[in-house]
Write a structure and sequence with these properties.
alpha/beta, two-stranded antiparallel ribbon, 13 strands, 25% helix, globular
């Protein structure tokens, strides 16, 4: 009987501390193949490399673990691996652990979650993991502990095949995390997104900064507020972005002729 095959990827790059933590987290569950970007690809969402060649290099090979570096985006990593690395479909795809939370509207920008969505397209159960700490030296100890609890549940009671999970950990030590909450995506937006600066030659340029504006500060069932309250937030997302309620409403009020 084949051992379980685990596909690991991320958007912070193959050398990121979060990827190493995710590999540690997943070692008890089977053989691991990690295909991750050569360089950081945060904020790339589901972007694909279409104007230049995509390159793949094996970085490490040892029993139970292979690591590849890909010159492309997180979505490239998944597509390339599924077409040219795996000889059988992985049993599970896990993405992360991202340096920084992926809550609220950040979901649509996240390369971490785009990789999980891409895995779902290949009908692989997929989970994106993020920690609410952007530091390159972030401590992922609690993520490994609590992440395994989520993996255990996902294997014992699988989620819908058209769904991928978005898991966000609060930046807290193990003994201060209050537990888990299945919740929904917070409503909010990024404001003051660019800072204007001037280079030494007198030319203006802009640096992305941004401040998150929470539109639901009192909502106890929304992911941003859940992690701020000290819980691990788990949001099930699906690929079908159709607003079915609005679809039916527009059918009634627009009444196009058949």
């Amino acid at each position: 009987m084949n051992k379980r095959l685990i596909f690991i990827t991320n958007d912070d790059g193959y050398q990121a501390r979060g990827l190493a933590a995710l590999i540690e987290m997943m070692r008890p569950y089977g053989d691991i193949v990690a295909v991750a970007p050569k360089d950081a690809q945060s904020g790339m969402s589901g972007a694909l490399t279409v104007k230049t060649p995509v390159r793949l290099r094996k970085i490490k090979e040892e029993p139970g673990l292979s690591i590849y570096a890909c010159s492309g985006t997180p979505a490239d990593c998944v597509k390339l691996a599924m077409n040219h690395v795996f000889t059988r479909k992985p049993d599970l795809l896990v993405s992360g652990i991202n340096h920084g939370a992926n809550t609220a509207i950040s979901v649509i920008y996240s390369g971490t979650l785009a990789a999980a969505a891409e895995g779902t397209l290949y009908e692989i159960p997929s989970i994106g993991f993020s920690l609410d700490d952007h530091s390159p030296a972030a401590d992922f100890t609690a993520c490994v502990l609590y992440g395994r609890m989520i993996i255990d549940r996902a294997l014992q009671a699988p989620f819908d095949k058209n769904t991928f999970l978005n898991v966000n950990f609060p930046d807290l030590p193990c003994n201060e995390i209050k537990g888990f909450k299945l919740c929904r995506q917070n409503r909010g937006a990024w404001v003051d997104e660019f800072e204007k600066r001037t280079d030494p030659h007198g030319f203006d340029y802009y640096w992305m900064t941004g401040v998150f504006q929470n539109h639901e500060e009192e909502a106890e069932d929304a992911d941003e507020n859940v992690i701020n309250a000290g819980y691990v937030a788990i949001v099930p997302h699906h690929l079908d972005m159709t607003n079915y309620r609005e679809l039916e409403r527009l059918k009634e009020i627009w009444r196009f002729e058949e």
